Amino acid sequence: MRSPGTRGRALLLLGVAGVAIGAVNGLDLPLTARQLKGLAGGEPLLDLRFGYGPVEVRRLLSQLGASGRASYLTMLWTVDLLLPAIFGLSLWVAIGAGSLGRWRRIALVAAAADYLENVAISGLIVGFPDPHPLLAVLASVLTAAKFALYAVGAATAVAGLWMARPESRSSDHASRGSTS
Known about the structure:
There is one protein chain. This protein is an all-alpha fold. The chain has helices at about 5-25, 35-40, 55-75, 80-95, 105-125, 135-165, 165-180. It starts with a helix and ends with a helix.
């Protein structure tokens, strides 16, 4: 059983992660996804798509222009250097606060996929105007993996916290006692 303080820390970190997601995607400030999306004519950034190929990569990077590509690269190695750490730590603590703590490595794998995605997208930006097509495919796979792993991590945290709540333990004991 985890302490109530652990659950509180988990909720606080998840709140911080939620605010970070909202700020990066919702605020129109330099080095945010919203600002870069505006530079790209409304097209979402590569790391916010569920899939893309070499044609979409070239189109987006072309639309961004030289200053937009420089800003995207800067965002990947400043703001997006912190986000996977925040998300990974939040999920690590949230999963560990529930009864499925043994699965918290999902949080580390999700953050690792996020960092590898940033490296691959950086390679695409640096390689523009002729990014390698296989690097575009790899970046897309890493983006999909990032989304899937964060989603699995969040679901694991919710399920573990649900299973660890006091009512479920007392009803489990009551049901076991009545069937014995």
